[in-house]
Each structure stands twice: as C-alpha cells, then as structure tokens.
Amino acid sequence: MLNKTISTQLYTEAKNYFPGGVSSPVRAFKSVKGSPLFIKKGNGAYIWDEDDNQFLDFCGSWGPLILGHNNPQVREAICTAAELGTSFGAPTRYENKLAKLILDNNRYIEMLRFVSSGTEAVMSALRLARGVTKKTKILKFDGCYHGHTDCLLVKAGSGLVTFGESSSAGVPDVFARETIVIPLNDPVALDEAMRTHADDLACVIIEPIPANNGLLLQPKSFLECLRLKCYKYGVLLIFDEVISGFRAGFEGAAGYYGVQPDIITFGKIIGGGLPVGAYGASREIMKNVSPDGAVYQAGTLSGNPLSMSAGYAALSQLTEVGFYENQERKTKLFCSIIQNHCRQKGYSANVKQIASIFWLYFDTIEITRADQIDPASMEKFKLLHAYLLEHGVYFGPSGYEVGFISAAHTEQMLIDGAHIICDGLDMVFNQF
C-alpha cells in the first residue's frame, strides 16, 4: 500500500489555506482516487513525494520539462542569473538572447513579446487580433482549451454553430456571446460560422494539436482548410501552441504541418520550467503592440531574467541535431508496447501519439472530437491511475490529460514503464 502519510497531512493543512487545498483545480485528484501527492523533488525522469515514494514521471509539470527534471544546464543558468538579481522590471540582455534563439529557428514568426503565462499569451493575442481587425468576435473549437480567459471559458451551445455558453461561474453571458464555438474537424460548420459572422469575426483560435481534452489529432487537411477560410473571410488565425510549441518540433505544430498562422502563442517549455509565455507574429502585426502601436499589453515580470535564462539554456539543447528524432523514436517505442498489448488482449483501449506527446484512452475508436470521449471510460482510468501510483509510475491525475516523454527518459525506463502500464491494464480489464 502506497504510504501517503505526510502528503495526506499536508493536504489536510492546505485545505485551510486554498480552495480545495490546491492552487490549480486538477491537482486536487478529484478525477482519480485518493488525495493528492505533495512532490518534494524531481531529477531526470523521476519525482519523489514528501513520503519519499519514487515515481517514473510522465506528467513533466504538464509538459514544459522536455529535458526532464532539474536539468543541469537549466539549473546552472537560473543560479547564475539569480546571483545578479531576480527581477528588475526593465530590459535585460537575457530577453534578447532568448528572442534571437527563437526567431532564428522559427520561420513562422518575425517578432514576439514575452509574458508570464500561456493564459496571458492567449489573452494578449486575442486583444491584438481585435485591435488589428477592428472586429470583436472570436471562434474557437469545442475540446480546445486556451487558459482561463473569460471569453474562452465557454462551451458549445445546442446547435451546429452556436454562440458560447459560460462554463464557469463569474463569466458574464455577454462575454460568452462574443465567442462562437464549433466542433473540431467539421469543415461544414467552419464554413457556415465564418460565412455568417465574417463581418464581426476578428480571429479563429485553435490548438493545432489539441492536447488539453485528450489528444484530438486533426488531419492536416482540416488545418489547411482553416487557413484558407481565414484568408477568404479576412479573419486572423491564431495557433495556441502553449503545449505543442517546441514539443512537436522547434517550430511547433506550425512547422510540423507546414501551416502558417497569423499569430502564435507559446508557454511552458520556453521557460525551462519557470513561469513564462509569449506571443508572436509577423513584424507587420506585432507593430500594433504598444509602445509601437495602439494595442496595450504590459507586465512587470514579463521577460524576467530567471525565466529568460532558464529558457535560453533549455531551448539551446533542443536545437541539437537529432533531438526531436530521438524523442519521437523513444515515444513510439513506449506507445507501441502498450498498443500491442491492448491489441493482443482485445482490450478496449488505445494510445495516440504525436512527437513526444501521448494519450492513453479507453475506447476502440479513433477519437478526434471532444464529444466522442465516453465519460464512463474515466472509471477505468481511475483504477489504472491508482495502480500506477502503487507501482511507481506517475500520470497526470485526469484521464483527459495527455502524457509527455522527456529527454531524460531512457529506452529502458520507457520499456519498464510500459510493462507496468500493461500490467495495470490487465488489472483494470479483469474488473470490467
């Protein structure tokens, strides 16, 4: 039985300080069994909780730790920068270095602006799109998550093409009505929405690799169709690459699919594990941002030296020859072991994968839309998650979340981890 004595004590205490005892909802383990683990340290591909249980980690702080925990170069860069100060609210050379590294290796943006989170990057990108087009409405896709900005915390209404309905208390209906929500991978709904609302529509925003509600991979043809429709109707296209940026390749999903968006948002990986975000576009579009233009956006901690130094140390390693090819190879190996096991046993389970992102789900169909996910299947994930914790494997505490492979995962670690997952699936399907 997994010893969670100290974690349980800390969680009991935390509930006196924070809503639900956590600083972000999914951490509360409400979607799985038991109470949350309090993590004490991480190194390489492993994390340890406060009770000194060791886990092979497939969460990676929800994606940014593509190099693994406590990467030596990143750690050294943070310490070196911290010796000179932690924040100035003024420009530093670290911003220049990281921006140059990104722009020199990404054909899809010409200028960028650093912010402090992915949500802030998306919020700023939406404002920029509205400022450039002088239009107000936005279009998003059911199943894509873009942070907790008011106008994006919406769900689909009851028709094919609907104005959004608030999915959170505290979001006024008037905000939600500025957002149109349609299904993924539905060119008919896309054309109808854009044709109907083109005069009011500032932008379309999409996760080109939807990875916040399962891994809902879209055919390249749909992204190409989306690009053409935006050109046709004079609407800006935003790729939210907070997860896929620098994960699907250094140029993210834009480079992976060869599709040029108008604005791209980034987060997670570019801070090397520290809080950061960014949005970028052509020089022409970015010149609309204050102080050059009329679209205001600011942040005291934007471009802070610790995040910039960590980001430069992290992204420099991603430019090494063969980095992404090695990540893809290892991830395919890991996923193939699990997938082959499911096929041999006839289990209703699948593993989807792109680059070093994967998603294990309990169904036999190819899922590309949020409405295809069976909520009842999450009962199986709850059992699997508990089994994996007992056997030293850490997944994010929700069956809707994807997993990540890092450079610190060796082939043998992945083979061993895959076999533990297979054993866990045997346990699950013996009970169902």
What do you see in this structure?
- With 432 residues, the protein is α/β, with parallel strands linked by helices.
- The strands form 4 sheets. It has an 8-stranded mixed beta sheet, sandwiched between helices. It has a 4-stranded mixed beta sheet with strand order 1-2-3-16. The protein has a 3-stranded antiparallel beta sheet with strand order 14-15-17, with helices on one face.
- It contains 13 helices and 17 strands.
- The longest helix is centred in the C-terminal third of the chain and has 23 residues, at 323-345.
- The protein has helices at 5-14, 72-82, 93-104, 118-133, 173-176, 187-197, 220-233, 252-257, 283-286, 305-318, 323-345, 378-390, 411-431; strands at residues 39-43, 46-49, 54-57, 111-115, 137-141, 154-155, 162-163, 165-166, 179-182, 201-206, 236-240, 263-267, 277-281, 350-354, 357-361, 393-394, 403-404.
- A hairpin with a 2-residue loop joins strand 14 and strand 15 (357-361).
- 37% of the residues lie in helices and 16% in strands.
- It is globular, with a radius of gyration of 21 Å.
- The two termini are 22 Å apart.
- The model is unreliable at 156-162 (pLDDT under 50).
Helix content: 25-40%
Mean pLDDT: 94
Structural class label: alpha/beta
Q: What number of structural domains do the residues give?
A: 2
Tell me the number of strands: 17
Quaternary form: single chain
Distance between the termini: 22 Å
Topology pattern, helix = H, strand = E: HEEEHHEHEEEEHEHEHEHEEHHHEEHEEH
CATH class of the largest domain: Alpha Beta
Strand content: 15-25%
The major beta sheet can be summarized as:
8 strands, mixed
Rg over CA atoms: 21 Å
CATH level 3 topology of the largest domain: Aspartate Aminotransferase, domain 2
- Unreliable stretches: 156-162
CATH superfamily of the largest domain: Type I PLP-dependent aspartate aminotransferase-like (Major domain)
